[in-house]
Amino acid sequence: MDLATLRDTDFAALHAAADAYDKLHGAFGQHLESWHSGVDQRLAASGWTGPAADAATPSLQLTTGELRAAHSEVGQIGKVLRTGADALVLVQSALRKALEDVRTAGMSVNEHGAVTWGPAPYADQHDPEYRKSRERTATALAARIGTALTEAGTIDQAVAARLQHYTTRAHDGTGLDPDSAGQDQLDPNLAVRTLLRVAVPRDGAPPTEVNAWWNGLPADEQQRLIKDHPDLVGNRDGIPALARDRANRALLAQHLATYEGHPPPLSDKDELRLAGFRKINERLEEAEGQDPPVLLLGIGAEGQGRAILSFGNPDTAQNVTSLVGGMGTELQRIGGGDADRAKAVYDSALRADPTRSTASIAWLGYDAPLSPQRTLDFGRARSGVDAYRTFLEGQRVTHQGPPAHVTAQGHSFGSLLVGLAARKPAGLAADDIILVGSPGTDAFHASELSVGAAHTYVGAAGWDYVSHAGWYTRDPASADFSAQRFAVDVGSADGTAHSSYWDDGPHDDHTSIDNIGEIVSGHGDRITKAVGRRD
Questions:
Q1: In 173-240, which ranges are continuous DSSP H helix?
Q2: DSSP letter at 443?
């Protein structure tokens, strides 16, 4: 596909053709239902037997199978047309944005996508850096244009091949074969999702790339993606929070429908996922119209389940904090106990500084250990490190206005994940780190974490046995770790100390949650300090 064709084509005609095929598919479905009720069901209930019945029944069953196959094939054509049109519109948007950037840069582009520029201003004619800068800009713009054209060609050929496949099957009669139609549904070479994958940033693309792609889309195309393809939006770091929330609510409804519609019995893991999805849905329904708004920034069925719930909008809040839960953090907790903790942090930060807005997030992007034996598995923490780091980077990218004050929080095994993330060469996109009930971070000293010792805060209750474990290199509450240790309620010997750091009820000791609120609101200098333990 050449530049002018991709730039100027109105793909609304493809969408209209898809609508027409969908209408035909619906009408064919009604015809199929009429045949089923008027022929199949009547024949089955008639009690007709004998030689004529024996001869007629297979013929009628064959017709039923052919009708079902044709109905399936017609339905696939509409999907191919619509998804192909969506993909081409996405690539067209990328091309048009690149061409706009060419004009903004004062450059020109020819019909083949080559980017050039005019003579340098007199003052820059002898400046070698000027030419190098222009060459870099032209090369980058030409690459974007070339990528768009290549992607458009790939999509165009794939759509043509799929349509040719169904046309051939209609002509040679194989489109009436139920087995062949069933194979078409399973054939990965015919999967319509692959058409869109060509037109969106690759999986694992940096949040900056995703954000640039999203911002380059027209508003109506953004809305189309949210509505028709929420799986391409909801869990992508670099896309604004409100868009992710809308997409993820649609995905949550899909997950609920999938698991609730599954024939019993569900596996134990599926039962846990379903319970988690239901709990999150309940939380969202309870929060409807309340302040702060509750946003669903992530949802998924991978592993034990994934979810990210935010109290407040992280794109506009002046303080943003994300809590990583530890042992026992299953999907239900994101709609339950971990949501309660995130809300308690939100309330505490607001008390600490009513002049600053806050977004407090419960983050589950990994398979937390569900039993004490699993806490010795470093791999579980490592598996979530990149996801958590990218999530925080995405928050930075989509934030509006001056940068937010960002705090990373880790509880129990989750503090190991946060520590591992903060020890990566690029560190964490956070200003402060809070570790509570931590059995260690795989670091000997707080200075090994990207925020440094002065911005690493540790809360450890005297009766919290986990915080004394020191399983992962060194106890962060020790004096030798050199973090900023803040005071907490010592707890009690009944085993509840490990989970009481966020207690915020009228009869609770607020020492811990108040100090967490001070840190999250950017006032770590106001915490009530505690003395570090001696190893």
A1: 178-186, 193-199, 207-215, 219-228
A2: -
End-to-end Cα separation, the chain, in angstroms: 68
Radius of gyration of the chain (CA): 29
Q: What's the pLDDT tens digit per position in 23-77?
A: 999 999 999 999 989 888 888 888 888 888 888 888 888 999 999 999 999 999 9
- Looking at 316-364, which runs of residues are DSSP E strands? 319-324, 358-364
Q: How far apart are CA 66 and CA 179, in angstroms?
A: 10
Residue 296 in 3-state DSSP?
A: strand
Between CA 331 and CA 374 the distance in angstroms is 17
**What secondary structure letter does DSSP report for 236?**
-
**What global pTM score does this model have?**
0.89
Secondary structure of residue 265 in the 3-state scheme:
coil
Which pLDDT band holds residue 132 (cuts at 50, 70, 90)?
confident
| 237, 210 Cβ separation under 8 angstroms | yes
Q: What is the pLDDT of residues 295-321, one digit of tens each?
A: 999 999 999 999 999 999 999 999 999
Residue 288: Cβ-neighbour burial (10 angstroms; 0-12, 13-18, 19+): exposed
To which residue do tokens 């899909």 refer? Answer: 254
Q: Which two tokens stand for residue 27?
A: 């009408």
Separation CA 88–CA 535 (nearest Å): 62
Contacts of 480 (CB under 8 A, 6+ apart): 444, 445, 474, 532, 535
Buried b (16+ CB within 10 A) or exposed e, 23-45: eebeebeeeeeebeeeeeeebee
Helical axes 219-228 vs 241-260, angle rounded to 10°: 20
Q: What's the topology of domain 241-526?
A: Rossmann fold (3.40.50)
